[in-house]
Amino acid sequence: MSARVTLATARRVLTQLRRDHRTMALLLVVPCVLLTLLRYLYDDQPAVFDRVGGPLLALFPFTTMFLVTSVAMLRERMSGTLERLLTTPLAKGDLLFGYALAFGVVAVVQTALASFVALVLLGLDLAASPALVVLLAVLDALLGMALGLFLSAFARSEFQAVQFLPAFVLPQLLLCGLFAPREAMAAPLRWLSDVMPLTYAVDGMQELAASSEPTGAFVRDLVVVAGASLLALALGAATLRRESA
Amino acid sequence: MNSVEVTGLSVARGGRQVLHDLSFTLQPGQITGLLGPSGCGKTTLMRALVGVQSNVRGTLRILGEPAGSPGLRHRVGYVTQAPAVYGDLSVEENLVYFAAVLGAPHPRIAEVLVQVDLGDRRTQLVQSLSGGQRARVSLATALLSAPEVLVLDEPTVGLDPVLRRDLWDLFGRLTDAGATILVSSHVMDEAVRCDRLLLLREGRFVADDTPAGLLRKTGAGDLEGAFLTIAESTR
């Protein structure tokens, strides 16, 4: 791996994203709009907004990065640029970490903006410092990115790549503890919930909502989210084969 | 000295044998044309040479190293049939990126832009270029590292005759400087520009000769006729 190639890849991906004004606008504005809707949906129940708002700050970067990355990577595969790159000295890690760096930057901007809107303008009440909120949200974004990179290997078209969202993200959303408390789930559902990375992303936000100091559970959540991202990146690297039929 | 040495190259794709026990060598300073109808295995052969084809049997040595080995990746340039460049980046941004990946010095970017005659399109987005211009951007990215071996899969498809002549002049200059070029085509009038021709049909070589040698052997008036004669005799 080389820092030069990794940075060049990150800069290239960011240039491509920046040029796509509509995608950038959707990435940055949609989370803020949804949070605003939620705020006024529970206008007379601020406690509910406080309970759901934090987890949503984890969910937006995860979902959007999953989608954007899986489509971007699929394009790279289908346009022949991936095959071309794999005949050059570029290492797989250069490509994966280049993407991670670029989407990490976008995630920081996205989360900082959404957090500002939620915490300052909409009065979302989280006990912990906004810096920890942004830190966890960026890790969630990288988790979504890593899963998107990995799963894009199994899509043959952009239609299929987009369908992976309901297939892989919605089950995690249903079982993450936001709709029903995890303690109340039937055992098999609870086990599923235990192995789904989004559970820890949402739990981490709930910890931040409840406690001003980082708790042991929050640290565990952080480690699980980071570990799951690295695992997905490693699996993604395994799908980038130089030789194909 | 051979820059490419291939012995017993066979490739199976999806249970079907695409290339059958091919052996050949390529020499520096020569343009070798790989000719044959579409579907005869030209692209598969080229992909095997650059090390991205799976299920390859046989021995493939390029510049003394096994095909696809890491030491070859900036010494062998590969231009795919469909332009492998980023449509949402400008011509220059594409070249800046590939130069970083290949470790090519920055001044090379201006040089290759002149070589493919795209100096005036530097800042234009690739997706707004014509097909032929896009193909030349793709070629330019491969030239950045001044590769010793160039594998070009139909690089002149969709180009007007003037541009085609210019590109073949460029290939000539590159081989004069010592490069080895393997270029595929299904247009016979380009075959005249090659030093040597490999005729591929259903995964087997049916001829390996100079253009003049092919004409002499078949008694045909042009290469199109020579190819037809050989195709008929091997059916």
What are its keywords?
heterodimer, A: 245 residues, mainly alpha, globular, B: alpha/beta, six-stranded mixed beta sheet, four-stranded antiparallel beta sheet, 10 strands
Task: Describe the secondary structure blueprint for this structure.
The complex is a heterodimer of chains A (245) and B (235).
Chain A: H1 3-19, H2 21-41, H3 46-78, H4 81-86, H5 92-121, H6 130-151, H7 158-175, H8 187-195, H9 197-210, H10 216-239
Helix pairs in contact in A: 1-5, 2-3, 2-5, 3-5, 3-6, 3-7, 3-9, 5-6, 6-9, 6-10, 9-10
Chain B: E1 4-13, E2 16-26, E3 31-35, H1 42-50, E4 56-62, E5 65-66, E6 76-79, H2 91-102, H3 107-115, H4 131-143, E7 149-153, H5 161-176, E8 180-185, E9 196-201, E10 204-209, H6 211-218, H7 223-234
Parallel strand pairs in B: 3-8, 3-9, 6-7, 7-8
Antiparallel strand pairs in B: 1-2, 1-4, 4-5, 9-10
Helix pairs in contact in B: 2-4, 3-4, 6-7
Compact description:
The complex is a heterodimer of chains A (245) and B (235). Chain A has ten helices and no strands. Chain A has 245 residues and is mainly α.
Structure, explained:
The complex is a heterodimer of chains A (about 240) and B (about 240). Chain A is mainly alpha-helical and about 240 residues long. Chain A has helices at about 5-20, 20-40, 45-80, 80-85, 90-120, 130-150, 160-175, 185-195, 195-210, 215-240. The radius of gyration of chain A is 18 Å and the shape is globular. Chain B has about 240 residues and is an alpha/beta fold. The longest helix of chain B is centred in the C-terminal third of the chain and has 16 residues, at about 160-175. In chain B, helix 2 runs parallel beside helix 4 and helix 6 packs across helix 7. Chain B is about 35% helix and about 25% strand. In chain B, the strands form two sheets. In chain B, strands 6-7-8-3-9-10 form a six-stranded mixed beta sheet, with helices on both faces. In chain B, strands 2-1-4-5 form a four-stranded antiparallel beta sheet, with helices on one face. Chain B is built from seven helices and ten strands. The mean pLDDT of chain B is about 90. The chains are: A mainly alpha (about 240), B alpha/beta (about 240). The interface of A and B includes residues 5, 12, 80, 242 and 244 of A.
